[in-house]
Amino acid sequence: MIINYKNCQVHYTVEGEGSPVVLLHGFLENLKMWQPILPALTKTHQVISIDLLGHGETECLGYVHRMETMADVVLAVLQHEQVEKAHFIGHSMGAYVALALAEQQPELFKGLCLMNSTFEADTPERQQIRTRACKMAQHNYQTLIELSFANLFSEESKTTYKEAYQNALNEALQTPLQGYIAAQEGMKLRPNRLEVFKNLEGQQLIIAGKKDQLINREQILKTIEGSRITYVEFSEGHMSYIENKKELTYNVLQFIEK
């Protein structure tokens, strides 16, 4: 399905019937990433998967895609589908977008799952890495994507899940340069949204991977100690939908059916 938002075509899908679940993919991904777990969810729920700005079949909207702007696009889709309340699951960057939406529209949320993601802002070091990546992208985009994607998987996972890894990489390579840079610039600008997450009235779940090099798990655990936030840790890395598909499916179903 397509809606027009500020002269930008936004692509999304709606499958199944029941209480709504909104799926938001990560950086260099698109809504196809959810295919491994989608059949389990659509048996009992209406599942709305959205291509975020500059990814998949959704067009770019300028040269900086702030998380708040992406959240506005998600809200436009949900309003078009007349969704008043839903469970949200965001993978990596998708969780940043969900948190930005939660700050604007907390009443929309039955629950929020941060999947292989965080509520924290970028460190200055991480911001510098993004800036350098944007400069490199303008000269050697394909090599940059291949190197960036390789870092999301352990060497073992790249062998064990070779076909899924290659398919995910092929999708990443379809991301336009403008979409890449705009998302990187937007992620650099996001604030810490711990209080937004903690103050949501619905369920709060963090799913982490033990081998995930992008997330500071120890810091997250220390920060959420004593809160209502549930923390679940899998054996592998950043790409739980590939590396821990069975465990992810089980925990997501538990999350949306409570």
From TrEMBL:
SUPFAM superfamilies recorded: alpha/beta-Hydrolases
Residues annotated as domain AB hydrolase-1: 20-244
Protein name: Pimeloyl-ACP methyl ester carboxylesterase
